[in-house]
Amino acid sequence: MPADVFSALANPVRRQILEALREGPRPVNELAARFDLGRPAVSEHLQVLRQAELVREEPRGRQRFYHLRPERLAEVGDWLHPFEHYWRGRLRALRDLLDEETP
After folding, report:
1. Which residues contact 53 (CB under 8 A, 6 or more apart)?
2. How far apart are CA 5 and CA 76, in angstroms?
3. How far apart are the C-alpha atoms of 31 and 17, rounded to whole Å?
4. pLDDT at 27
5. N or C: which end of the chain has fewer CB within 10 A?
6. Strands of 55-60's sheet, edge to edge?
7. pLDDT one-digit tens code per residue, 89-103
């Protein structure tokens, strides 16, 4: 059973890893170079992302490349979609208020 995707996304380092993987598959060394963390710490974050099925691992020789699994993120988007109505209404109210204050 996959780990909770929301728990995996709660950590900012893991979100940054996912953002880096939007550009395409990356080896762990390249991902680790983006952070002020050691490779073992980044590997732990990648393990959490794998358990949540947000990334997949591909061995290539001595390296392991990580790929984004966007279908799990689509599930998050589907869950968040009903809340868009709330935020659009709030932003519309803010825009109306700002328009009233503009001379």
Report:
1. 2, 3, 5, 69, 72
2. 8
3. 7
4. 93
5. C
6. 26-27, 63-68, 55-60
7. 888 888 888 888 776
Three-state secondary structure of the chain: CCCCHHHHHCCHHHHHHHHHHCCCCEEHHHHHHCCCCCHHHHHHHHHHHHHCCCEEEEEECCEEEEEECHHHHHHHHHHHHHHHHHHHHHHHHHHHHHHHHCC
**Predicted structure pTM score:** 0.77
Residue 65: how many other CB atoms lie within 10 Å? 18
Phi then psi dihedrals of residue 4, to 5 deg? -65, 120
The tokens for 82 are: 């009903």
For the chain, the farthest-separated pair of C-alpha atoms sits apart, in whole angstroms, at 65
Contact indicator for 45, 8 with CB cutoff of 8 Å: no
The residues near 8 (Cβ < 8 Å, ≥ 6 apart) are 14, 48, 49, 51, 52, 54
